[in-house]
Amino acid sequence: MYRVFTEAGMVENFDQFFEQVYDRFRDSDGWILFPETVEVLDELKHRGLKIGVISNFDDRIYSVMRSLGILSYFDAVTISS
Question: What domains can be seen in the chain, in order of their start residue?
Answer without folding.
Answer: 2-79 (3.40.50.1000)
